[in-house]
Design a protein that fits this description.
By secondary structure, the chain is of the alpha+beta class. The protein is built from 15 helices and 14 strands.
Length: 478
């Protein structure tokens, strides 16, 4: 007798779906219900709780594909292509690959809406009530090859190895919320919005960043939003940000500053919009009074000297009053040139502003961890909509992983267990994102092995089939 797992055993028994007898034996109707349902990916209940908070951004069929692709991207340890997600999710043999490709290229869902909803999830679950929001904005290049990849061009690549910082790929401007987790000593940047930037188009990187900042502040208008960025983000696009937004960046060396506008004289004519020309920060830094202070940055406390002045950065922010902070190192680093920050926040203490700007480095760590542990940018999409969606999708998986670990995955013994496996990490005191992703992968694998597939027969049903087969063979005339 051929094994029940052999090819064609269902057709040889001629299943009946009404539970009637075959060969003199009664077959349970559960096995006779027609062709089996295609199996879907097994999503752990704890991960499904996090994903359900994004259900309103998708239709019911699209949300099912979204959960499968998120699970597959996180569980995949090889190439994170679209088909690689299906393989890691365990549906490569049951789902057509076009279903996953269509999710990125043709499905009706809005990345902007999904990012806004994800920001609300972060604010509601990971931040104190009524606390101000701190966000970081930056751009990064995801290397891509091929002439038909939309938006792939040779452009600046800050992570390039070699003397020339250039690379070919797609550049995305990313906005992420900075969150302090209870089990980590440094803030984590959780990406929520990302937009593709193409050289030579009408909009610059600063304009894309400003539009995302306005969208985020409009959806969280009851909270203060503090944005930090590097020296590349300045210009006219930042002049008219909402009143609940402050912006902090490094001041370029060539930036010319002016004094505040003098009071009106009452005479006819236009009033003066700016005061006397002050020059660059290096021109008048020596004239300011310096005071010692202790700042908390990069997980350590440093003694520095601080000087500040309120003025106008007329060429970039026009008539908006700004504060210029000069930070000079002391001790062995006293020979370094001072750090010059410019901010529209006129009320926060200087030490808090320096700490806030130091948090900006978290977005660089996020980019590196995204590429190494989640394979952001590895999807081989070529059409415009697919290219514009695959990278934000991978960035959201980073955020979803951190949210899941904070709510459901963290345990105080995680670090001790890691040090037992790798005793050479003698200074490890807190989990990294690699630990978070690895634990979520283990949970996905364990849930998949322990889950029962409704399309598979139970042991009782298999025994009933065997009995029916034996009875049918005995009653068959020879």
């Amino acid at each position: 007798m051929r094994s029940l797992a052999g090819r064609g055993w269902r057709s040889r028994l001629r299943w009946r779906g009404d539970g009637r007898s075959i060969g003199g034996a009664v077959i349970p109707p559960l096995l006779g219900r027609g062709p089996p349902i295609l199996p879907s990916a097994t999503v752990p209940a704890s991960l499904q709780i996090v994903l359900d908070k994004l259900r309103g951004c998708f239709t019911t069929p699209t949300f099912r594909i979204f959960t499968v692709l998120v699970t597959g991207l996180i569980a995949q340890t090889g190439r994170r292509t679209v088909t690689g997600m299906l393989t890691a999710a365990g549906v490569a043999r049951s789902w057509p690959h076009d279903r996953a490709h269509a999710f990125f290229s043709r499905a009706a869902w809005d990345p902007e809406l999904a990012g806004i909803v994800l920001s609300h999830v972060i604010v509601r679950l990971l931040l104190p009530e009524a606390a101000p929001l701190v966000a970081a904005v930056d751009d990064t290049l995801f290397k891509r090859s091929g002439k038909k990849v939309f938006g792939a061009l040779w452009q600046h690549d800050g992570t390039a190895k070699g003397p020339k910082p250039v690379g070919r790929g797609t550049c995305f401007v990313v906005l992420g919320l900075l969150v302090c987790l209870p089990f980590m000593s440094r803030p984590v940047c959780l990406p929520v919005m990302a937009r593709l930037w193409r050289p030579g188009t009408d909009k610059t990187k600063v304009e894309l960043a400003a539009s995302m900042i306005r969208a985020l502040s409009a959806c969280h208008r009851r909270r203060r939003l503090h944005v930090v960025a590097d020296a590349a983000y300045h210009g006219k696009a930042l002049r008219h940000l909402p009143v609940n937004v402050t912006f902090t960046t490094r001041l370029p060396k060539s930036a010319v500053l002016y004094g505040l506008a003098p009071p009106r004289t009452g005479r006819r004519g236009w009033p003066r919009l700016k005061g006397e020309r002050l020059g660059t920060a290096a021109d008048w830094a020596a004239q300011l009074p310096w005071r010692p202070a202790e700042v908390d940055r990069y997980r350590r406390c440093d003694d520095v000297l601080i000087a500040e002045r309120c003025c106008l950065w007329y060429g970039s922010l026009h008539t908006q009053t700004v504060r210029v902070l000069l930070v000079r190192e002391v001790g062995k680093n006293a020979s370094r040139p001072p750090l010059v920050l410019v901010t529209t926040d006129l009320v926060a203490p200087a030490t808090a502003l320096i700490t806030r700007y130091a948090w900006r480095w978290s977005i660089e760590c996020t980019f590196a961890e995204e590429r190494e542990h989640l394979g952001a940018g590895q999807a081989q999409s070529r059409t415009r909509r697919a290219v514009e969606r695959t990278v934000p999708f991978a960035l959201w998986c980073y955020t979803i992983t951190v949210i899941w670990y904070t709510l459901h995955g963290h345990h105080p013994s995680d670090v001790a267990e890691h040090r037992r496996r790798s005793p050479w990490y003698v200074t490890k005191a807190e989990p990294s994102f690699a630990d978070m992703a690895a634990k979520l992968r283990r949970v996905i694998i364990a849930d998949r092995l322990s889950a029962t597939d409704p399309a598979q027969p139970t042991p009782a049903e298999i025994r009933a089939v065997q009995h029916a087969w034996a009875t049918a063979s005995a009653n068959t005339p020879r």
